[in-house]
Amino acid sequence: MKEWAANAEGQWPIRSCMVTLLLVSERDIASTIQGDALLARGGWLECDTVEGGAVWRHEKQDVWLWWFSQGFLMEDELDVRFSTVNEIVVEEVIFLSRHFASSGRPSLTLHVIGVPGETPRGERAEHGGIKGEVMLPNPRFASWYRLMCEAGHRHGLVPEFELTIETTHHGPCLSVPTMFIEIGSSETHWGRRDAAEAWADVMEVGLGLDGGKGVGNWATLSAEMRSEAKIMIGVGGGHYAPRHTDVLRKTECWAGHQLANYALEMNKPEDEEWDPDTGILPEGAWNHAIRVSVERTREAFPGGKVMAHLDRKSFKGWQRRVIKRLLEELDVPVGRTSDFE
Questions:
Q1: For the domain with range 222-340, which CATH number is right: 3.40.50.10700, 1.10.3720.10, 3.40.570.10, 3.40.50.2000?
Q2: Helix crossing, 286-300 with 317-329: angle to 10°?
Q3: pLDDT in tens, 77-102
Q4: Which of 318, 316, 315 lies closest to 272 in space, CA to CA?
Q5: Cα dist. 113→14, 45, 171, 229, 242 in Å?
Q6: What is the tens place of the pLDDT at every residue in 280-312?
Q7: pLDDT digit string (tens) for 199-231?
Q8: How far, in Å, CA of 139 to CA of 43, rounded?
Q9: CA separation for the pair 98, 108 (Å, rounded)
Q10: How far apart are the first and last CA of the chain?
Q11: Residue 53 to residue 161: CA distance in whole angstroms
């Protein structure tokens, strides 16, 4: 995301829009059905192809849609590749995608990306990205979750569909704030037009394609608004982060990376005299995963107040204590639901 210097009055210039790239994968029916639903609403002007894929630009906002011929996960720097061809600067990327879960339960879900807990760091991850690295979280994440819930109910998807977030996982690698919006969880549901229309509602309102201001654009906030905004990093729990999701549902907070327990491997020291409040910090991927997630979330939300929400019941007592030690070192307050209101 572009950063902007404060003016003489110490205020951030307020921007009404940003350059957004929506990515559709030709190989993914849940992706193409979302793209079709959005294009059918009109206002799109066809442009020159990029890497053989069709491209449209919206007439009301600086939003581009790229119909990509391949899958996404192993395709790094798509933002740079698109920007170079069109001589623009893409400032955020949103992937339209399918979601797979062994449960097969139908769902609408969204998440930011990276592979924070995988080792050895620096190696290519199985599902894209680099082990130990996370991308800039898209600031729209939390507000679009709430829009998704409204759209899911409006289109009658509930109670059949679960409306949820996911913790940070998989690639690809990009340079700008990014997130995935998905239809799940099996081939039976990926082609559901009602689910695609719900996501089209979210994109239309969320990006201001309906003539509105859009939802979740951090760049439109003044310095004072940013300083008062609370950004939640979720720490702990399962892949679908129900306790962190509950915070998003009950408050108007923003959100960065969400870390499941599987990304927080922690090895308790063998010394019987070891004290979690004063002893050496345990080895394991947890330390780096939290550090890099805090760093990238702060980078995506300049001027905001980054806070952590712990899924306390998912940790042993000594684990909670060392996590809080690290967060204190990083100057990240730990809050309960009411603290994010």
A1: 3.40.50.10700
A2: 40
A3: 999 999 999 989 999 999 999 998 87
A4: 318
A5: 27, 30, 6, 22, 18
A6: 999 999 999 999 999 999 999 999 999 999 999
A7: 999 999 999 999 999 999 999 999 999 999 999
A8: 25
A9: 9
A10: 26
A11: 32
CATH number belonging to domain 20-206: 3.40.630.50
Instruction: Walk across the sheet containing 63-68 and list its strands.
Output: 44-50, 53-58, 63-68, 20-25, 92-100, 178-185, 107-111, 162-165
What length is written for the chain? 341
Q: Are 235 and 54 in contact (CB under 8 A)?
A: no
For residue 175, which amino acid is it? S
Give dist(CA 11, CA 194) in Å, integer: 43
- CA pair distance 171, 176, nearest whole angstrom: 13
**Tokens at residue 220, please?**
């439109």
Distance, CA of 13 to chain centre: 25
Evaluate if pTM is beyond 0.85.
Answer: yes
Residue the block writes with tokens 């939290």: 290
Instruction: Give the residues across from 25 on adjacent strands.
Output: 68
User: Which helix (H) or strand (E) element contains residue 95?
Assistant: strand 92-100
Q: What is the DSSP letter of 108?
A: E
Adjacent-strand bridge partners of 68: 25
